[in-house]
Amino acid sequence: MTARPRASLRRVLEDLGSTVLDVAASPGDLDAEVTGVHIYDPLDEPLLQEGALVLAVGVDSAERVRALLDAAGPAAGVVVKQPVEVDEPLRAKVLETGVAVLGLTRAASWAQVAALLRSLLAELRGEGDLAEPGQPPPDGLFSLANAVCALLDAPVTIEDRSSRVLAYSERQEEADAGRVATVLGRQVPERYRRMLEEGGVFRRLYQSREPIYIELDDEGINRAAVAVRSGDEILGSIWAAVREPLSEQRRRALADAAKIVALQLLRQRAGADTSRRLRADLLSTVLAGGRDAAEAAGRLGVASEHLCVLAAQLTEETYDDAARLEGDRQRFCDALALHVGAIHPKAAAALVGSVAYAVLPLQAGGQEETRAVSVAESFLTRVGPRHAANIGVGRLAADLTEVARSRSDADRALRVLRARGASGQVAGYTSVHFEALLLQLSDLVRADKQAPTGPYERLLAYDAEHGSELVATLRAYLDAFGDVNAAAARVHVHPNTFRYRLKRLTEIGGLDLADPDARLGVMLQMRIFGR
After folding, report:
1. pLDDT of the residue at 144
2. What is the Cα Rg of the chain in Å?
3. Is 164 exposed, middle or buried (0-12, 13-18, 19+ CB in 10 A)?
């Protein structure tokens, strides 16, 4: 059996380069294995897995870093924003705990570095690659980027068709400000992308099967680029920051590298599709809560107690392109998985149909649904500019046997938001319980092909025949809790006129407004039939 590739702290630092992370204080060697990324929150109990890289958001003094090192236990390293205050007591604490302290450039956001690290760790461990049984996984994109960098003697990025950075080489600090911004954001900044489009660079790049040379004038160091293809399909491109045109030997090296990168991207695409289908199947099994839920939870690595289900769905009315909708659904789900994974290492998310479900472990102790709603609101705030969506939140499940109920809760809360025509909203099930019950009751009524009855039916028929407004009068009266003046103002008539209409509707409909059951019955029919 081939052992899983090991991602050491030293390798992570070498691949990221000093553009992003630097060592502030080291216990000696940097051979500790990095197993995952954890975002530190001083308000939560630290649940750190061995080898975690802790992103210390808001930790800005040597004293607070020392306290975090004491709490970090088996972590591989702690990341704080530069400049890092390193004094002798902190150095001593680093040696005592064996946990390195790393400095993150101030230009990077925590979301950026979390995404960078997770992507890099997946590459280093070979996750998503399709290797033959008994064979080591193929080299990752970051390794390929470093190899191309060595061949060309220039910093390199590998990008997809949308100019998102899939991997990058070392030595990025030798490039210009545009390249640094690209690496940190994992996306070519809009200003530079627009400049390349207006200059016809992408058209030249994708029409040519050979590397092209791009002069950027005063915008920074020039570029050499080549399209990455699979037959006639454009998979992405490779970009090298160079100061002069490539020699023929280096042009051939770049063209050959594009073929290798194409194979890797195809492997990753196949592996990612397979992995996503597997995760969706496993999470569906967990959400069903049957006898196989425990095994599926174990394979997914999710918690089995104190779980809350989130059901997230894009506002599909904003799409007129089915292909773009499907792509955005998957990117939206990936972002949700990243978000909940940063909160708890045993959370999971997957796309099931058109809904992205997340299983979020929570510490029991009250207000769990409120905390889950807060997590969902924070996520929508982050993705809101790119994805309009709603999220329903289920009640806490004490164990896997109750997860199906939490999933149903989340689905019903999400349905309430859709029925409201909401976008960018989060609803916990308990806050929309009554609306959810009304929707369920409406389903039963439609299934049985039922129609309005009693006083409500008679009032509808009278309005239809005489063009009167008796139903509107009744609705205004009930909505105003029997306050005639307020109800008359709602329908823009004099209170005396309103009282006359009220008397007429009780006579015609045979409705006793003094009877609470009669009022409830007609109110429910109004809500269910919506007329």
Report:
1. 85
2. 30
3. middle
